[in-house]
Structures are given as C-alpha cells and as structure tokens.
Amino acid sequence: TxxxxxxRFGAIISEVNELIRRMAPEExxxxxxxxxxxxxxxxxxxxxxxxxxxxxxxxxGVKFPDIIEYVSTGRQKxxxxxxxxxxxxxxMVVRHLPSPAIAQKYRIPNIWRGDPASPAGMAMAATxxxxxxxxxxxxxxxxxxxxxxxxxxxxxxxxxxxxxLTVAGTKIKNRVQHxxxxxxxxxxxxxxxxxxxxxxxxxxx
Length: 205
Hints:
Residues 147-204 form the Translation elongation factor EFTu-like domain. By secondary structure, this protein is of the alpha+beta class. The protein has eight helices and eleven strands.
C-alpha cells in the first residue's frame, strides 16, 4: 500500500540522515540532511528511466498512488514519459548541490595539502578564474582519433587551446591542443574553460 511504502522509505531516509549526522562535519549536518519535502530525496528506477520527488509531484500533478498503480500493472514505460528521471535528478542537483564557488571554500583544505595562503591556495578557495591555472585530472581515457583525453576539475584559472601547462612533480611543459566541456556523455569543444568546471583536455602527457 502507499502507506506501507512510505513507512519503509521513511525508515531508510532516517538511517541515511543518521549516517550523515555521525560522519558529516558538525556545521554541515543540518544542511546535508535529506528530506523528501524539499526535493533532496527522489524515488524511482534507473533501469526504467523514471523518478519522482515531492516538488516534481507538486508541479506536475503526478501522485505517489499513481506511481504504485503504474508499477503494479507493468506500465513503467508510461511513467518514464510522465516523470522523466533526468528532469527530477537535474532539479535535485540545481536545488541542493553546492556550486563550486561555495564548495571549494571548505573542500580545498581537505583535498589540497599546499599553503592555503599561497596564490594558488587562495585562488582555488575562491574559484578564481583570474588566478593560476590549477587542474586536477581524475580520469584519462583513450580516444581512437584524439588520443589521450584528460578529464578533471578546474579549481582555478582558465584552460585555453595552445596554453602551456606543467604537470605537478615534473618540469615538462605540455601544450593544450583542445579543450572540451561535457554535455551529458558528449564532449563539446570550447575556446576556453573557466574555474569551477569539469573539463576535458587533449595534449597532456
């Protein structure tokens, strides 16, 4: 029944919030706790490509009992047209994930061991596009046509085609051949990427 499902979901959400309470920095416990009413919780199926949240239900008129009816009668493809997973997840990201300009202020001291008062440290904490370029590579893939593609977070500065970058720990300079931003799974070539973006670069080795 809708009531029993909501009770089960409520218990799971309480467990998640208890983990957040125990593990999150004290100043972020309230902010990071999740609540279906504010849209920080969604229910759905990644396999069937549908999702629902309270704000989405309020906007569209799709109700929780409707979802149960669709699922119980094997009509999940119809739900996917009424409650598209990408719309719900995108709404959650926009509403609840902090922007780089906010998050880097408290994340940089935890992920970077350099001097926070240095030009690079201050630029990263401020997500400064006019600061020194600091690009943390998190993934390298091979493209049959482009070769090595380095993907990572641009914490400060800019990435532009033709600029020279030095890989940390080496003195070897690499020239950036192409800069891209991601649009879903696709890479979109751009003239420039600025601080705060996830970018892909060809030319690093």
